[in-house]
């Protein structure tokens, strides 16, 4: 890895004020989660009860962080080539794989900083409900939330080496939507039959189950048992994607 390249990428993202937009979105989520009362119930608890609000908040954070990761990762590597700055790297003897990996890590770092800003929402929710023990659990939960972000970053960064930015962004958005819709799509696949069911099962097999990964952070916050097979599967996915990423080359240099 090249620390200079990583820090330059992070600095550029901060200067674009992407992270500040996410901070504002975090405050908006907090207001939405704590501002209203409802007579509707889920499992005997009001819709706006603490547990339900925390669940919704964690899901929204995962989707928002995933969307930002796509926006950051789909443009970082192509922009470097479009500006022609890659030539300055080659003459210094930096390998293309190291260059690409440093750019991807820079994007991932910026996305994780944004995740930290987004966590203002559950922190405010926990403080409002006197849930200090859960606040203390938040750092570990944040590490669990980083797994789906890392998977998205590696997928999108790898595709951006070969594909145009728009195609990469659309593919990343599809992965994000399908990944978080895994439970719903699984239900449909079981209810339907024929070609539609086959297509859905194929998608579920190929696309990572981002929903289950994100829900592990909620389970940890609530003191529930973790689905370790999901966590280990996520770690294995990150490792395999990282190895594949390092193999990707770009002819234009």
Secondary-structure blueprint of this entry?
Blueprint: H1 3-15, H2 18-34, E1 41-42, E2 45-46, H3 50-83, H4 86-90, H5 96-118, H6 120-128, H7 132-162, H8 165-180, H9 182-191, H10 194-206, H11 210-221, H12 228-247
Antiparallel strand pairs: 1-2
Helix pairs in contact: 1-5, 2-3, 2-5, 2-6, 3-5, 3-6, 3-7, 3-8, 3-11, 5-7, 6-7, 7-8, 7-11, 7-12, 9-10
Mean pLDDT over the full residue set: 81
Could you state the oligomeric state of the chains shown? Answer: single chain
Q: Which structural category fits the helices and strands?
A: mainly alpha
The geometry reads as globular
Please give the order of strands in the largest beta sheet. 1-2
| Largest beta-sheet characterization | 2 strands, antiparallel
Strand segment tally: 2
Radius of gyration: 20 Å
**Which residues form runs of ≥5 with pLDDT under 50?**
none
Cα distance spanning the termini: 18 Å
How many structural domains are formed by the residues? 1
Kindly state the percentage of residues in helix.
over 70%
Instruction: Bin the strand percentage.
Output: under 5%
Number of H/I helices: 12
H/E topology pattern: HHEEHHHHHHHHHH
Could you please describe the fold and organization of this structure?
This protein has 253 residues and is mainly α. It has one domain. The protein has helices spanning 3-15, 18-34, 50-83, 86-90, 96-118, 120-128, 132-162, 165-180, 182-191, 194-206, 210-221, 228-247; strands spanning 41-42, 45-46. A hairpin with a 2-residue loop joins β1 and β2 (45-46). The longest helix has 34 residues, at 50-83. The radius of gyration is 20 Å and the shape is globular.
């Amino acid at each position: 890895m090249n620390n200079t390249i990583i820090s330059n990428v992070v600095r550029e993202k901060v200067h674009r004020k992407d992270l500040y937009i996410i901070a504002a979105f975090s405050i908006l989520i907090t207001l939405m989660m704590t501002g209203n009362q409802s007579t509707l119930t889920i499992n005997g608890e009001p819709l706006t009860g603490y547990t339900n609000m925390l669940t919704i908040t964690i899901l929204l954070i995962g989707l928002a962080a995933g969307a930002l990761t796509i926006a950051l990762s789909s443009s970082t590597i192509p922009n470097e080539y479009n500006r022609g700055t890659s030539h300055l790297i080659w003459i210094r003897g930096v390998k293309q794989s190291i260059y690409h990996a440093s750019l991807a890590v820079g994007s991932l770092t910026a996305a994780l900083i944004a995740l930290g800003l987004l966590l203002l929402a559950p922190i405010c929710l926990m403080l409002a409900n006197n849930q200090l023990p859960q606040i203390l659990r938040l750092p570990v939960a944040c590490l669990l939330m980083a797994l789906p972000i890392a998977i998205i970053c590696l997928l999108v960064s790898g595709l951006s080496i070969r594909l145009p930015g728009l195609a990469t962004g659309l593919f990343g958005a599809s992965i994000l939507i399908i990944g978080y819709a895994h439970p719903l799509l699984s239900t449909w696949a079981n209810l339907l039959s024929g070609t539609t069911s086959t297509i859905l099962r194929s998608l579920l097999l190929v696309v990572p189950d981002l929903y289950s990964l994100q829900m592990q952070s909620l389970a940890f916050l609530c003191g529930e048992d973790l689905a370790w097979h999901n966590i280990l599967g996520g770690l294995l996915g990150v490792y395999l994607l990282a190895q594949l990423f390092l193999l990707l080359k770009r002819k234009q240099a």
